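Re-run requested by the PI after the first attempt was lost when the workstation crashed. Everything re-entered from the original request form. Ligand of interest: manganese (II) ion.
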Amino acid sequence: MSLYTPERRGFLLAMAAAALEPAVARAQAAPAPASAGPASPALIEDLVTANRILSDQGIVDAFGHVSARHDKNPERFLLSRNLSPGVVTAADIMEYDLDGNPVDARGRLSYLERFIHGSIYRARKDVGSVVHSHSAGVIPFGVSETPLQPIYHMAGFIGGPAPVFEITDTFGPSTDMLIRDPKMGAALAAVLGQRTVVLMRGHGSVAVGPNVRLAVMHAIYTEANARLQAEAMKLGKVHYLNAAEAAKTQATNDGQVERAWGFWRAKALAANPVR
Ligand code: MN
């Protein structure tokens, strides 16, 4: 006789439900994390502009997102509600803790993959901004045996062969490829390590920087490098920047970010002035 009579099964399910109830109640009753207070208006302005630039430059489309670490508390970050970056305004910026819990959701929907951001801010004290995109040129380097490498001086920040996050290494063969919780975010942050760019197999990439403007520049030139590398490889053997060249060109180009930002901002706002 089976132990699992219909009666016993029903009893066990009822016991399981009863055991879960307090946990569910606690989760529902968990208070929202405390706010760090208002972020600097200049930071909000940069974050909104970053959304518009990344959209205008074709790095993000309907999907993808950019965040900034809160300037009043390193345990908080700022990210738009669930919108396409090209239509984000200052009123859409929300505050989160590093586990991706919204401070003041007010019914607003969050990006499914906000955990990318909090997990990287937790792992990397030097990072002030994170860009996640599915930009098309990068995808082939995440799914093939050919690593993305710095092909020219504008992309020295790639450093060397870019790491690739393989989601099945930790989370099995049946995910939807998304970074859906802090544990998945931490696994991605671990593969990023101390680098500036990490590719995500069959999904996209993440670029970081010490501030919003540099993260945006790194995201833009990651995509440019990918397209150029694919073109160069059609011609035969490719000579990449060596480690010293990569480090020196990054230092030089990061120092030029204001020139690029002013141009990208003007272009993006002329094309799409809705504020
Ligand atoms: Mn994604």
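Saved to the shared folder this time. The chain has two domains: 1-30, 41-271.
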